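Quick one, T. Sequence first:
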Amino acid sequence: MEEKLINRVSESGLITLNLENFFPENPITIFDLKDYLYHGLILKEKYFRDDLKQVAWRDYSGKIVLILCSSDAIIPMWAYMLVSQYLAPFAADVFTGDEESFLRNHYHQILGALDLKPYQGKRIIIKGCGSKPVPPEAYSRITQLLQPVAQSIMFGEPCSTVPVFKRPR
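Structure tokens:
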């Protein structure tokens, strides 16, 4: 007589939360102000405005656009505003800063709006070792948010977890 195999992980009541599921779906691209500066260093307003009028803004449709300047130029705030104004009708989102800063901000906002009711009193595993660049701050943030409601929080995979938090009984 064959013994029935039991999937203890599925029967354990563990909830796996994969932060990669919150990664932005739209492609991320960069708009570098350096390309519109005189010698890559000086912003001359008239030329800057003229150059921006020539940009194919439709190429940014549906994308998350990160506005930054990769040179050490001093950029006035209105320049970022002007580029944002041009991008607004096309881009899915516009952010001033690099990808790392954008992802930290994105996860802070997304996780802050997360409905925590499904995690009330549950044993939660925060999945690790993914293929997308989830920032470390996202793991700290989800821990802060879940700690008041979860029974326990672990990191890793259901077959191999690291305990992070356990509510005393």
